[in-house]
Design a protein that fits this description.
With 90 residues, the chain is of the alpha+beta class. The protein has 2 helices and 6 strands; from the N terminus they run βαββββαβ. Strands 1-6-2-3-4-5 form a 6-stranded antiparallel β-sheet, with helices on one face.
């Protein structure tokens, strides 16, 4: 698990989404009680939200997925300045 600052999240996601390999990325709060799970596979981008809201989203393009992740990150990680990330290639 690596720690990043919330300000670096967008740049980190751009770098991650740029690779065309399949992956699973989990972004957690510092206390690890809320998270966003992003899975990229042959079906597209899948985003699972576990926190204030529990929901699931499916996207075809990385731009739409990036917008939704940033929108949900601002809601889920409102007062967090540091975030943990778990990255796994599939």
């Amino acid at each position: 698990m690596t720690m990043i600052y919330k300000k670096q999240l967008k740049q980190f996601l751009k770098r991650t989404f740029k690779s065309k390999n399949y992956f699973a990325l989990k972004i957690l709060t510092f206390k690890k009680d809320r998270y966003l799970l992003i899975i990229y596979n042959q079906e597209g981008y899948s985003i699972c939200e576990e926190g204030f809201e529990k929901s699931h989203y499916q996207f075809e393009s990385s731009e739409e997925a990036m917008k939704k992740v940033m929108e949900k990150a601002n809601i889920e990680f409102k007062r967090s300045h540091r975030l943990y990330t778990q990255f796994r290639k599939e």
